[in-house]
Amino acid sequence: MTTEATTEASTGTTPFRVTTDAWKGLPFMEEHPDNKGYIGDVYENPKGSRMCSGYFELHHTDEPLVYDYGYDEMKIVVEGEFLLRNVDTGQEMVAKARDAIFFPKGSRIAFSTPSYALAFYVGDRDSTLL
């Protein structure tokens, strides 16, 4: 649910937004049918912004979910932990709750988790690239 102030008409400024429970009921990542990944934008280029943001949820599976980044993205781990591996360079790291992550454009990242992880992301992309 998005709540938006109604001051735009009276002040000429774009109001800020607050969205409640946007992490609930995320759509299944159908392009990765062997994984238990869920993702959804909360804000898709609002008011012409270059940015999109939303939530990414992953449950444990035997194989990692590999995602190709055609744009720069940052994530904040909200819950759980992600095991991250750059499939091209072999770099491996663990990101836990409250950690910040940056993926540069062109990265191919293998995501896995020992049990569950939830992250909030912001990407410098058009909404059609999710």
UniProtKB/TrEMBL annotation:
Protein name, per record: Ethanolamine utilization protein
SUPFAM superfamilies documented for this protein: RmlC-like cupins
Stored Pfam families: EutQ
Domain of life: Bacteria
Species per Swiss-Prot/TrEMBL record: Nocardioides bruguierae
